[in-house]
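FOLDING PROBLEM:
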Amino acid sequence: MKNSKNKIFYTEIAKYSKNYVKSLKVKKKSHNTISSYSGTLKAFSNFIEQYEDVISFGNLKENHIIDFLIYKEENVPVHYFEFKESSKNLFITHLKRFFTYIAKNSNKSYDFSRVFDDLKIRIPERIAKGLESFEVENVLICLNSSIEKANNHVQSNSRTANKDFKKSRQFVAYRNSLIIKIYLYSGIRASELIGLNINDFVLEDDLYTIYVIGKGNKEAKVFLRPSRIEKEIEFFKNNGYEIITKTINNKVFDRVQIWKMIKKVFSVAKVKTGSIHTLRHTFAKTVYAVTKDIGTVKEMLRHKSINTTTIYAKESEQTTKNNYKKAIS
């Protein structure tokens, strides 16, 4: 390792990390949760490996965790939009629970509460950054254009002459359209779409009911109007495709690849930079704008607390101005 001073601590952390992740699997935590914890613990091990100061279970301090957050921010993957305060708090939560696990399972007596009790990053008031209606329209136009180009593709004597090329191009166009529309019109979480099968779409009361595994590894229902994705579903069924999030090589189309695809579509559609979650925000804002029922939005997003949902109840500046003009004539 790069810094031999922390070799013992590094080895112990690696051992406990392996056992902790194993315990999460036994507790039937979701794949996304396990992956998230594993990523944080791996990053923490890498941090220890290069850290100059000596760290041990006995001398672990708050400033060591702060230094880890700085290290994590400086080494954030290129596909992240930004290193948010909420991400920092998530890493703190991961480490706090990990070290609580260590304290419970060590033969020695450790008290890590002094390290984490007052450690929390202040998060600015959240603003729901959804797309404007004209941006949604631009995205839909872009998706339809891609499908039309794929359907109208003419074989030539070039490399595109491969008889499977047109079908592959069609699959990518219809898949991308289906993914974005599911996010946009159902409010589904990013990770819940991974591995979803079109046979999971059950028609009930003129709506698709989609059963997903949500947070806490709990089954949940998501609703979607069939007319919004009719042509995409028809293409999948007519061509024997079932898994929505897969590549043309039949491999998993993961969250990073989905993000890159959405970023590319946004760019072509001349839409400001956003994320997968931007589409969920857009769904929530659309539902609230029509219903003015924050309770319905909470249920559709499956939030535990309505306090999380209230960010969507804030009117835009233009709506506020229009309502003022109505009130004060």
Observations:
- Residues 177 and 285 are 21 Å apart (CA to CA).
- The first strand starts at residue 201 and ends at 204.
